[in-house]
Design brief:
Number of domains of chain A: 1
Oligomer: heterodimer
Largest interface: A-B, 40 and 55 residues
CATH class of chain A: Mainly Alpha
Number of strands of chain B: 16
Structural class of chain B: alpha/beta
Strand order of the largest sheet of chain B: 13-12-16-14-15
Number of strands of chain A: 0
Largest sheet of chain A: none
Order of helices and strands of chain B: EEEEEEEHEHHEEHEHEEHEEEHHHHH
Number of domains of chain B: 3
Number of helices of chain B: 11
Radius of gyration of chain A: 21 Å
Helix content of chain A: 55-70%
Strand content of chain A: under 5%
Number of helices of chain A: 16
CATH architecture of chain A: Orthogonal Bundle
CATH topology of chain A: Ammonium transporter fold
Radius of gyration of chain B: 21 Å
Largest sheet of chain B: 5 strands, mixed
């Protein structure tokens, strides 16, 4: 009898080598980029901030696993996307948020912002913003940063601007704002940390630089126009960039892959539109910080913007 | 059946779109035609050595090699241009079919990183390349002849303009070479011919015999290897041991195919043979995560994420609307896909299904 010698070559389709970056690597990188802001948030707000961030991530992961169980699907929770969604949602909350608000909002982000659209990549919206919008509209009092953070001596510059006008925020020190000495979303206002993480993502090419540039450019330009029209009413571009979640939105929320355009011109238009909407909502809207709604609205324009495309190679 | 040990006394000729002309146990001479091409622009296949036909199926002809006589050389003088090209194809050079050629571009750029065969041909076989280029010029009668070379190459061929192109993938692929030379995307009446085809034509012009060897990159060097040599044999000669679960890649890492067995033979389009030890294939069955990497990297300015998602669910008409036919299959989308989807495979599937549908509807409209 012939000796059995099991032998088979592996046959596979090209490419036979890969750049090495997987979904998991990208999500880990995004989490790493959020770490500086998270540390700064813990230093500024103490244990309440850590509590909100940890609870939000746990709720996101459990919500995704529960969805996968009920949808009878193998769970993809090991790709860390639920962690990034949970942490992004926590970054938008006040540190005083009650546990049920954090848990519900984070679960809503995953269920309504991601899982109902199928696996990662199907959602037309940036997932954490869905949870934020649901909570903001359902429990405005608990989501109101100014009202719920009476215990600290920090102030919420955007609410001050909205309620008391420009004179109330004129005394604010730009450096203090940059270092996160302000109220707002607990992680989103850690401007220095967010900027550091965002630049890390851009330099490691995990996100394209066009969308952040577009958002920052759109914000600056629109704020400049208002400021130029009447400097006694409207705040300067620098104030708008350094308060609320403008930079966090520019680097982490607006760049969310499936809900943002992929080509250069659409990306720039999308960014500019987000930036302009931020200032318009802040100036005329009832919400002090326009970033989440601005990005959700811009998300809706993604399919339209995607229609701006170059001709394929060789087509005349 | 897959066998671990290959023998140098066997040759396996791959039939892609060829009809076999031989039957089992038939004795063949060295250089005897064993299959004819059934598609335009494809050369016939000849026995690389005298021997006996051992196995014939629609995909391969296997020969047991032996010493024996060689067919007589053909006389190629005094043929007209089109006749010469037809004769070159009969003798095994894959000369593209093209009626009107104004610009003939000879692509001497190695298509993918790690391939050395065209570079080695230029450095070592300049005389044969000259003969081959002369034959192609005689056949196509182009107005301009351009040689596209990477920056590091010093050699050139007579009577043609030399164009140095950047040595960065995917610049060396035929459509991008044509764009770089003419300044137009997909220019009319322009033909890009790979250097190995010029070399094959040169071999025919020099000896009058069919093509029986080709330049293959193995490891860090490139050498002439008889057609049909089992790939496992090439690798074992190079000191590699093939183990269970290995992958043998024919061609470059981005576009090459994996050999089905170590007995599979080298054909004229094989530019490299390499062994990959990692048993896990790159591609996995995953949904698109919408990161947009492929859209940003695509040199044809397509949206590979949408094309492959349509192909995945059988919506080929929508893939056609996304201009899948403009894709020149560089494979960068799959290389950069963070979900590791088999991008190139989906694109080829869509193209194939569209071509099939077109052929079927064409048959139906005929009376």
């Amino acid at each position: 009898m012939k000796p059995l010698n099991p032998f088979a070559l592996t046959v596979s389709v090209p490419p036979h080598r890969h750049c090495g970056t997987t979904v998991r690597d990208r999500m880990v990188m995004i989490l790493m980029a959020m770490l500086p802001a998270a540390v700064m948030a813990a230093m500024t707000f103490g244990m309440p901030a850590v509590r909100v961030m940890a609870l939000s991530m746990a709720a996101a992961v459990l919500a995704e696993m529960a969805c996968d169980y009920f949808m009878d699907r193998e769970t993809d929770v090991h790709d860390f996307n639920a962690f990034t969604v949970g942490l992004s949602f926590a970054f938008l909350l006040p540190a005083s948020a009650p546990w049920w608000l954090v848990a519900f909002g984070s679960a809503a982000s995953i269920v309504l912002g991601k899982m109902v659209f199928g696996p990662l990549g199907g959602s037309p919206f940036c997932a954490p913003l869905i949870g934020w919008a649901v909570c903001r509209i359902s429990w405005p009092a608990y989501m109101d940063v100014n009202a719920s953070m009476l215990a600290t001596d920090l102030t919420y510059p955007l609410a001050q601007l909205k309620s008391f006008g420009l004179d109330a925020v004129r005394i604010m020190d730009t450096r203090q704002l940059f270092l996160g000495k302000q109220l707002g979303g607990l992680g989103a206002v850690q401007i220095a940390g967010v900027l550091l993480g965002g630049l890390l993502l851009v330099m490691r090419k995990h996100i394209s630089s066009i969308i952040p540039v577009g958002v920052i450019g759109g914000t600056t330009l629109t704020a400049f126009i208002f400021h130029w029209l009447d400097p006694s009413i409207y705040a300067s571009p620098a104030f708008h960039l350094l308060t609320g979640s403008t930079l966090f939105g520019a680097f982490f929320l607006a760049t969310d892959g499936p809900s943002s355009p992929n080509r250069q011109v659409p990306m720039l238009l999308y960014g500019l539109m987000t930036g302009a909407l931020i200032i318009i909502i802040r100036t005329f809207g009832v919400y002090p910080d326009g970033v989440p709604f601005a990005i959700l609205l811009a998300n809706l324009f993604t399919p339209v913007l995607e229609r701006i495309r170059p001709k394929p190679f060789g087509r005349r | 059946m897959t066998i671990q040990n290959t023998s140098a006394a066997l040759a396996e000729m791959n039939l892609t779109r060829h009809c076999p002309l031989v039957t089992c146990d038939q004795k063949v001479k060295r250089g005897e035609r064993i299959a004819t091409a059934s598609a335009p622009g494809l050369g016939d296949i000849h026995a690389p050595s005298a021997g006996t036909v051992e196995h014939v199926d629609p995909y391969r002809v296997r020969l047991a090699l032996d010493h024996g006589e060689t067919v007589g050389p053909e006389v190629l003088d005094g043929l007209s241009g089109p006749e010469l090209l037809a004769r070159l194809r009969t003798l095994g050079a894959d000369v593209p079919a093209c009626d009107q050629v104004d610009t003939l571009i000879i692509n001497a750029m190695d298509e993918e990183p790690g391939l050395l065969s065209r570079r080695t041909l230029l450095a070592e076989r300049l005389e044969l390349l000259k003969a081959g280029a002369e034959a192609l010029v005689r056949g196509f009668v182009p107005v301009d002849v351009v040689l596209a070379v990477p920056g590091s190459v010093r050699e050139s061929l007579p009577d043609m303009e030399v164009r140095v192109l950047p040595d960065q993938y995917p610049q060396a692929l035929d459509p991008l070479v044509a764009k770089a030379v003419t300044g137009i995307e997909m220019p009319d009446n322009t033909l890009v011919v790979g250097l190995e085809t010029v070399f094959h034509a040169g071999l025919i012009m020099d000896t009058g015999l069919p093509v029986m060897e080709t330049m293959v990159t193995v490891g860090n060097s490139s050498r002439l290897i008889p057609l049909g040599t089992p790939v496992g044999e090439i690798l074992s000669t190079d000191g590699e041991t093939i183990r269970d679960g290995d992958r043998i890649v024919l061609g470059g890492v981005l576009r090459g195919t994996a050999a089905a067995s170590p007995g599979q033979g080298v054909d004229r389009l094989t530019t490299a043979v390499s062994l990959t030890r990692n048993p896990a294939p790159v591609a996995v069955d995953a949904a698109c995560v919408g990161c947009g990497e492929c859209v940003r990297r695509c040199p044809a300015r397509l949206d590979p994420s949408m094309i492959t998602s349509y192909a995945e669910f059988g919506q080929y008409a929508k893939a056609e609307a996304e201009a899948v036919d403009a894709c020149f299959e560089c494979g960068l989308c799959g290389f950069f896909c963070i979900a590791r989807r088999p991008m190139l495979q989906y694109i080829r599937l869509a193209k194939r299904e569209l071509a099939k549908a077109k052929a079927q509807s064409g048959e139906e409209t005929q009376p």
